[in-house]
Amino acid sequence: MKKTAETAYRVPLFDRIFPPKTIVLANGHSVKQPRSRMPLITLIIVALIYMSIRLTGFDLGIIARRGHQFTVILTQIFSPDVFNIQAKTFESFGLNPETVNFFSIFDGRWWEALWYTMQHSFAPNVFGPLWDTVRMSVLGSFIGATIALPIAVAASTNINRNRVSVTIIRLILNIVRTLPTLVIAKIFALVFGLGTFAGTMAILVFTLGVITKMMYESIETIDMGAFEAMESFGANKFQAFWSACMKQILPTYLSYCLYALEMNIRAASILGYVGAGGLGLLIDERIGWRDYNGLGTVLLMLFILVVTIEQLSQYLRRKLS
User: Fold this and answer.
1) What's the average model confidence in pLDDT over 302-315?
2) How many CB atoms lie within 10 A of CB 306?
3) Domain containing 270: what range?
4) Is 31 helix (H, G, I), strand (E, B) or coil?
């Protein structure tokens, strides 16, 4: 005996509290116009903003009194000492500081003064940590991306039919991605000691979590016809995947690797805050000494490195596509 259930329309709570307005048309029929929810939404948003201000201690007065300091600090940061040529430096190379202008760049003495300033700026102290940042990023990204591929295959439901193992692998990956890179670097710094090795391990784990997540989602969208045909001919899963699926996912995989490298260059620059090497220690040191001109030099060199890596990565991704 079949049971039939009639689905009745449930009036929303808002319409029960604020009944719709009845409008009588010219032909005698009537329609109900629901009340606008905008006043209620606006009231809720205003209440949430007010509670947020009270809970966070946000104070516009502090911004009004201290906001100009932000401009002062930014002005010093955007005036890195690597380009801050002093008047006495111009004089030592036979130039009058009062007459130096844009056209002075065509004078060889101006370039000599600039080179002297660069040599005596904070820039020479940046090259070592900057190189450490590059090494940590490249090595951690390479090892992490290499390990990520087989784990991504094992976490793909269309390749691995064992639901239990897939669930366990994805659970572990979710835990890894939940931990911030700085926390991972701090843990490795405590385990392996301070230095670039801890930073490399932190980047490795971060890269592993990110690329594995993106890769198993990509693998689950590929055409499985060739894979199933290879298995029907007696090939094992590895042979079938390598022959039938690898060509489909290789461009995507390499693109993800390059994207991870871009992110890791930026992330590695702050790992020094927890003792994992790289530029983070210099950044923390310059901020502590209120040397914002030196900080500007560090950030300028990091910016040049990031832009270079990003342009190279975009060029390679275009070739892959």
Assistant:
1) 87
2) 14
3) 123-320
4) strand
